[in-house]
Structure prediction request, 154 residues.
Amino acid sequence: MLFFVAITAAALAALGQSWSNAAEREREAELVFRGNEIARAIASYVAASPDPTIKQYPRTLEDLLIDRRGVKIRYHLRRIYVDPFTNAADWELVPVPGDPTRFNAVRSRSLHPLLRTHQDEGTPVSQAKDWAFIAPRADAPATPASVPGSAPLP
Prediction:
């Protein structure tokens, strides 16, 4: 009987670890999805600049929700997504080089270690905060390699 209890406990521990890994992978997949959606919305905002010679980046995430720069109101993002690791819409806004009041990328504020590690523009990514979701340039063709977070999940 004691042997049966020990085997059952070991099996339940393995199952719990498996569920924990599955939950972590799901949170990482959500981070990639939500970060990519915000990056896509930033690119859409820049492409919709009223003056095509001046590319304007957003100042806040709310600018992506309702864009009132033109005659017609545009909606680049349906809602401000919650960071799956912090459970808050507290994304760190990465400033545009040369203009600290505007941003062209977002990243998580979480120090949570990732199961999936990779290289992001030559820098190893091992924590959620290390992964920046950068808007693709408006004049660059959209290829799977240029989309942030497009590497397949292991």
Observations:
- The radius of gyration is 20 Å.
- Confidence is low (pLDDT under 50) at residues 141-154.
- The helical segments are 2-47, 62-65.
